[in-house]
Amino acid sequence: MTHSPQKKAEILQDRFGLKTAAYLSAGAADLPYDISERLRAARVQALARRKIVQLETAASAVNAGGSAALNWGSDDGLTWWSRIGSMVPLLALAVGLLAINSIQNDNRAQEVAEVDVALLTDELPPAAFADPGFVQFLKTAR
Hints:
Layout: H1 5-28, H2 33-49, H3 58-63, H4 80-121, H5 126-129, H6 133-141
């Protein structure tokens, strides 16, 4: 016999409630009469005020239109301004990434230019550029 996940959750909740009630009832048998009556009245009040919560499944959320991405093509109160407003963060992110990329490229070009200027203005023999230790010297000299 197979049950849906929602039905299984309800069964487990019912079992937990029954076990908890049995545990509390076992401890309440030893209490004086006035305390047990106050507990009984409190239980009645709690049951009267409890909220019935229904679990919402993913299928009902999609059918109810619970996702903004699923509502993009529908006209459920979305005006052009609200659609443009929802695109502004995406546009700001793209502009920010392009700005960061441009700044990084400029910084790299400037670092390469500084190395080139240092190499061209320094008085080194051409054989120094072919030396394998020269790259290490440049790294430590900075």
